[in-house]
Amino acid sequence: MSNALSNRINNLPISQTLAMAAKARELKGQGKDIISLSLGEPDFNTPDFIKDAAIEAINQDYNSYTPVDGYVELKEAICEKFKRDNGLTYKPNQIVVSTGAKQSIANIAQVLLNPGDEVLLPAPYWVSYSAIAMLCEAKFTEIPSSIDSDFKITPAQLEAAITSKTKMIFFNSPNNPSGSIYSEEEYRALAKVLEKHPDIYILSDEIYEHINYGTKPFSFAAIENMYDRTITVNGLAKAFAMTGWRIGFIGAPEWIAKACTKMQGQITSGTNCIAQRAAITAVLAEPSKVQYMVDEFKTRRDIVLDLLGNIEGFKLNIPEGAFYIFPDISAFFGKTIKGKEIKNANDFSMLLLEEANVATVTGDAFGAPNCIRMSYAASELQLHEAVKRIKEVLS
Ligand code: GLU
Prior knowledge:
The protein is of the alpha/beta class. It folds into two domains: 7-45 and 290-394, Aspartate Aminotransferase, domain 1 (Alpha-Beta Complex); 48-286, 3-Layer(aba) Sandwich (Aspartate Aminotransferase, domain 2). It is 39% helix and 13% strand. The longest helix is centred in the last third of the chain and has 18 residues, at 291-308. The structure holds glutamic acid. Glutamic acid is lined by residues 15, 17-18, 39-40, 102, 126-128, 176.
């Protein structure tokens, strides 16, 4: 039967983050005591003031189709947010609300990329960027980095990766999976290179913006001569613990926003009405209202860093944001542990799943084959237990 499927879907890799989460769920269902550090999902509830706004919307009979690009009130609220948090001036006709930041990114890729265009992906990068580029029949080129450069690329590397076919580059700061944050200075140095290549568009994924531990992330579009070719992507999933509500949005040059609206109009139409009404309240709320979650994530980050730091073979950087630890575990390659030969990060991640009952995601999926990703959006108790089990298996 699979012969009937298109090449497009047959060639598409499965999302490794979602696959690992599904695997963990399945094993749990079989009665195994799995600790899942695989999915990037806050373990908090959506704050009450947002839930109340959704309940009110239901009672006010928000039932109908919504404007394809989002309610005007929400787009105005997003403009205010961009001004308040990012120093960016957008008008409502530059905003498009989508069913999660993932759809926002897919829209942008669909409207800008032609087959054969090249997309630059500073690695490590979120698993779906490469798949989304593939769906547009574009090629993606990884720009590698390592833990020694805090998982950041240099202007010289960027310059070397650009070809006459380069159409886009995807930036993501704070980064999933490394937690690294590009400083304003570092972004400006990369922009200097892009200045010489006016046909390259920049997608700046800022979904982890509010989850930072003191280093305030800088928005790429705030660089004066980059504004006209940067698309700023954000959403509510991470900072507001609203992963399932599926609200993402972009601020973009008007012609790109218009094209994304046209694309979305043929695929999903407007985003869910109740989630959009609640999103108005969330977007207008001061970030300080969700700071308690960020403080908790920081405590957990420090705990995990401290615990993993005691395991020989784990090389760590200090993530400045998001909620992932991305250790380089290549010291284990070539070893046999519990009768299993560890050739790569996949083997290591499977070893942790099968022998320690701890689910992680292989770095391969993020373009960083020496690493694994561990989400610390889990309780302190679970984190202590997970590292204890890992330590036992490795000793
Ligand atoms: N973005 C999250 C992650 O990286 C959620 C899963 C996904 O959509 O990839 O785990």
